[in-house]
Amino acid sequence: MQDYDWTKFTLRIPIKAGIHKIYDFWTTQDGLEKWFLRNAEFTKADKSLRDRNSHIQKDDTYEWMWYGYSDDTVERGAVLETNGRDYLKFKFGKAGIINVNIRTEQDITLVELVQSEMQLDEKSKINFHLGCSKGWVFYLTNLKSVLEGGLDLRNKDINIKDVISS
After folding, report:
1. 9-149, superfamily in CATH?
2. Is the pTM of this model over 0.85?
């Protein structure tokens, strides 16, 4: 596997929802908490908290918490780019950079996630390349499930450990 690129991966999923709706689910606190996070708090560049339904902007920072994990597990990062329509880019803690593109291909709405700029040491390969790709497969599937049918697949019980749904 010498030719394999451990610094990035790409995941794509078709979702039966409009681009604007999917973008809202990626770029607002309210949207992210419906499918991805227990708490998604964003702070604007002026150090004030962003409103739950306000779209994130470049230079916002965030603190995220997941279901299934204690309040001690917090991810911190920054919003690097948004375009207000179908694209966002953010620093995903130590795990690298996430680019999300939402577009239509052959009359189907696709979400494409690229995680890049991952380190090449063995721990990073395991935690960020393998671990994050597994996590994103679940969360992108949950985004599809919530948007297409309303069913949230996340494990919300902190007492249940080592499951793919949190």
Report:
1. START domain (3.30.530.20)
2. yes
